[in-house]
Structures are given as C-alpha cells and as structure tokens.
Amino acid sequence: MGAMFPSRLHAAAIERSISALDALARLRRRESQPKHLATGVRGEDAAFFHVLRSGYTVVARRWAAGNVPGDIDLIAWQGELLCFFEVKARTARDMTPAEHAVDSHKRNVLRRLARAYLRQLPQTVPPQVRFDVISVYLLPGKEPQIHHFQDSFGWQERFDRY
Predict the structure, then answer these.
(1) How many independent structural domains does the chain possess?
(2) Residue 109 sits in a domain of what CATH number?
(3) Mind listing the pLDDT tens digit for each residue in 82-108?
(4) Of the chain's two ends, which shows fewer C-beta atoms within 10 Å, N or C?
C-alpha cells in the first residue's frame, strides 16, 4: 500500500491543479465552447483521474488514427492488458443511462480505431485487449459520479455486456 500512496497523492495534486487551471480558462473564454462539448471534456478529465487512481498507466487521451474517423477517449495499460476506454458524460440522470449511448455504430468505430492503434505498436504479438466504458455524471454541486464498466464489449457484437 505504501508504494501506491505517492502516486495517488501525485494524481490528486495534478487533478486539483488542472481543475483550478480549467476554471481560470473557462472564465477567460466565457464558455465559447458549446455546452455539450464542455461537458464531454469535463467528463473525460474526471475519467482520466479515475483511471489513474485505479492504478492504470495512461498512454493516450483522445487518440485519433488520422485515416480512421473518430477518436478513443483513453488508452491505458493495466499490467499486460491494454484497455481502450469510451467515456460518456451527462449533467443529469435521465431515463437512459449514459453508457447506453455506446451503440453498435460507436463500438464498431472503437474497434477500427483499436486495430489501428495496435498496428502502430512495436510488438510483433499484439497484447490482450479490453474495451471499457466509463459513465460520468456531473451533477450540480456534487463530486463527479463515475461508473466504470470493464470489458463492456469485445471484438465482435455477440460479446456485448450491457
């Protein structure tokens, strides 16, 4: 436990610093960004720190292949396992949970992007892979509520776990 304490403390300090800088930036640009995009960025930031606190090694944020449309919100190693994360953020709890927005089209896009990411790795044998979804609820006056769904879907549709 002692070895993990410094990294958790470090992640918490970085999180506080980024939150403070983000608040200053929002004041300066007067929310010129559309609200839904700002919500997405805040959700991705909350998910990023959740993943760090959970012991993952994050290697990419908002990774894009260039020749494949879309991006992967987070890519991180959990030991020898490479995890691809899709983050869905909401400012209210509606009838449909945020994670249900990762439909079959989005899953297929994430699979194509994951294949592109794997092709650019130096290993000759691809690592074991997992697709996770993180739902983040940014409710006014509350800490972000984070729900991490590990192994949410696989390389083929029949493996979906919702």
Answers:
(1) 1
(2) 3.40.1350.10
(3) 999 999 999 988 888 899 999 999 999
(4) N
